């Protein structure tokens, strides 16, 4: 993890502190990415949103997020970790 030592030194109980090889962290990223990717499809199926939300949010944005997560799982570099972080910012409200 990019900031594993900083988290540990600061006493923050982050997953990365106790995950030296990154397996658990990568698994959590992929699992929660899949959960988030399902939201546009479920909300469209329940007629809460329009089908365009499934296309824009589900296929395009979440598809890219899952791609970035998969890339991090295969190659755990600081650059890939940074991409996961920056991609996760899409979920924050403006």
Broad shape = elongated
Uncertain spans, ≥5 residues at pLDDT below 50?
A: none
Judged by helices, strands and strand pairing, the structural class is mainly alpha
Q: What distance separates the N and C termini?
A: 27 Å
Mean pLDDT: 90
Total DSSP helices: 4
Q: Quaternary status of these chains? A: single chain
- Tell me about the largest β-sheet: none
Assess the beta-strand content as a share of residues: under 5%
Number of strands: 0
Could you name the key traits of this structure?
single chain, 94 residues, mainly alpha, 4 helices, 69% helix
Tell me what the structure shows.
The chain is an all-alpha fold and 94 residues long. It has helices spanning 4-10, 23-45, 51-74, 78-88. Helix 2 (23-45) runs antiparallel to helix 3 and helix 3 (51-74) packs antiparallel against helix 4. The longest helix is centred in the middle third of the chain and has 24 residues, at 51-74. The radius of gyration is 15 Å and the shape is elongated.
What's this model, at a glance?
With 94 residues, the chain is mainly alpha-helical. The chain has helices spanning 4-10, 23-45, 51-74, 78-88.
């Amino acid at each position: 993890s990019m900031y594993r030592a900083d988290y540990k030194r600061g006493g923050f109980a982050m997953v990365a502190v106790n995950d030296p090889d990154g397996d658990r962290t990568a698994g959590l990223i992929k699992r929660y990415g899949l959960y988030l990717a399902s939201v546009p499809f479920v909300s469209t199926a329940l007629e809460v949103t329009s089908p365009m939300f499934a296309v824009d949010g589900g296929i395009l944005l979440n598809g890219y997020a899952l791609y970035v997560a998969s890339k991090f799982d295969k190659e755990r570099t600081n650059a890939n970790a940074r991409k996961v972080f920056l991609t996760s910012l899409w979920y924050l409200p403006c």
